[in-house]
Write a structure and sequence with these properties.
The chain is of the alpha/beta class and 266 residues long. 32% of the residues lie in helices and 27% in strands. The chain contains nine helices and ten strands. 37% of the residues are buried.
Length: 266
């Protein structure tokens, strides 16, 4: 609102101009006030499904890849921004590999933020629309993490240090291909990675890219959680999904396929 520094005097954040934002009892800062977008926000059931699926460890290879790259690219006392933090699963993995780093996660979903705020002792969380200018000072961040989330290239560039790092993850067209065919899950646009790369091209130079692909062996419960934690949950009725899963037969093998990219500010 005024671009001044916020300080935490108690259960709120306040600036010298007396703008005030509450800290929810679940420990995340409510910065969106009454302007929170009602569309595209992860619901309580989607967040619960994501939590259940991530607890299975099926995406642990991706978390380990992010941790390995982070350790190689970032100083141990980095300030980390996770734009579209979700439950904080990947932010926690990154902070575990940087022993004195601190992290801030931004997300629109209050249900996800409740978990993100408590995902790690050195992590904080705040409600924010990633498409809008971030509530973060320019060049205050050493490392930006962006996993399956919208990419606001100009704000990534503004908030990053000139020698900072942006690490992005997108699903490849092969991701969950077997489940797409049998369950009607939403498919990945084959041009998505190229399109997203173009959105970053004016402010960033791509430094390296890794493809990560492996086979997951899933139970019926795994498949239901995986199918219910993303956009597909808004397009397929839960009862219809369960009937389709019952016809699959389990355990069921599905491909996890990701593109992990490292960018440097121009």
């Amino acid at each position: 609102m005024c671009h001044d520094r916020l300080k935490p005097p108690g259960q709120a954040l306040r600036c010298p101009s007396r703008h005030s934002f509450n800290i929810a009892r679940q420990d995340y800062a409510s910065l969106l006030a009454g302007n929170r977008r009602s569309t595209g926000v992860d619901t309580a059931s989607m967040v619960q499904a994501r939590t259940l699926f991530l607890q299975t460890g099926h995406y642990a290879p991706l978390a380990r890849t992010l941790a390995r790259l982070t350790a190689a690219l970032c100083p141990p006392d980095s300030t980390v921004l996770d734009a579209g933090v979700g439950t904080g699963y990947y932010l926690a993995a990154v902070l575990n590999t940087l022993p004195t780093a601190v992290g801030l996660g931004l997300d629109t979903s209050p249900y996800a933020l409740r978990r993100a705020a408590r995902s790690h002792a050195r992590a904080g969380a705040a409600s924010w629309d990633i498409w809008q200018p971030f509530p973060i000072r320019s060049h205050a961040v050493d490392f930006v993490l962006n996993v399956f989330a919208p990419r606001n290239g100009p704000e990534f560039h503004r908030t990053l240090q000139p020698n900072g790092v942006l690490l992005t993850v997108t699903p490849s067209p092969q991701h969950l291909g077997e489940l797409q065919r049998h369950l009607g899950l939403l498919s990945v646009d084959p041009a998505k990675e190229e399109r997203l790369r173009r959105t970053l091209s004016t402010g960033f130079q791509r430094d390296q890219t890794e493809a990560l692909e492996y086979v997951m062996v899933l139970t019926a419960q795994d498949i239901e959680a995986l199918s219910s934690m993303g956009p597909t949950a808004r397009h397929i009725n839960a009862d219809v999904l369960r009937r389709r899963i019952a016809l699959l037969g389990t355990p069921f093998q599905a491909t996890a396929s990701f593109v992990v990219s490292v960018y440097r500010p121009r």
